[in-house]
Amino acid sequence: QKVENTGRASAVVNDVPDKVDQQNVSSELSLGGLIIGDTEDKMRSVKGKPTKSKLDGSMIRYYYPDMEVVIENRGVTALVSNGPDLKTKRGFHEGSTLDEIVKSYGDSSMKFEADGLVMYEYTFQTDILGEGILRYAINKSDNRVNYISVRLNR
């Protein structure tokens, strides 16, 4: 397990520039230029207007062509990829290989199967929001990333 102190606090959630080089984002808990803890306003400045939104209990799910963003209490609590153009901090995306991921992060201590995919999860610590999970869902047939999700561990 790897631990990262991101230094991100609620007062510093808007420090990601509008045009994001995703590999220069400060947190492993990021995808497509957004970081867990970013504000709803930051989401809109980075992603623009969502194609659809859905109220889900205390959460609002915003849908974009390339990703889903979950907001709770006006802050980003989850991100899910929907296309190969979104990258993590380390540059991984849908279609990356399991070998590349394991070389970068090490073997995952949390592996399980769901919906015909093998989930590889890595945990990272934030200063303010607690533990977050970066998940790579791997196709068993070709050992490539099917989707990526980032979320708070609640």
**SSE succession:** EEHEEEEHEEEE
Biggest sheet overview? 8 strands, antiparallel
Oligomer: single chain
Radius of gyration over C-alpha positions, nearest whole angstrom? 15 Å
Number of helices: 2
**Residues in helices, as a percent range:** 10-25%
Q: Helix/strand/pairing class, anyone?
A: mainly beta
Tell me, what's the shape? globular
Poorly predicted runs of 5 or more residues:
1-25
Spatial order of strands in the largest sheet: 3-4-5-6-10-9-8-7
Measured distance between first and last alpha carbons: 18 Å
Q: Which percent range describes the beta-strand content?
A: 35-45%
Instruction: List how many beta strands DSSP finds.
Output: 10
Average of per-residue pLDDT values:
84
Describe this structure in words.
- It is built from two helices and ten strands, in the order ββαββββαββββ.
- The chain has helices spanning 40-47, 98-105, and strands spanning 30-31, 34-35, 52-56, 59-64, 67-72, 75-81, 110-114, 117-126, 130-139, 145-152.
- It has an eight-stranded antiparallel β-sheet, with helices on one face. The protein has a two-stranded antiparallel ribbon with strand order 1-2.
- The longest helix has 8 residues, at 40-47.
- Mean pLDDT is 84; it is low at 1-25.
Secondary structure layout plus pairing:
Layout: E1 30-31, E2 34-35, H1 40-47, E3 52-56, E4 59-64, E5 67-72, E6 75-81, H2 98-105, E7 110-114, E8 117-126, E9 130-139, E10 145-152
Antiparallel strand pairs: 1-2, 3-4, 4-5, 5-6, 6-10, 7-8, 8-9, 9-10
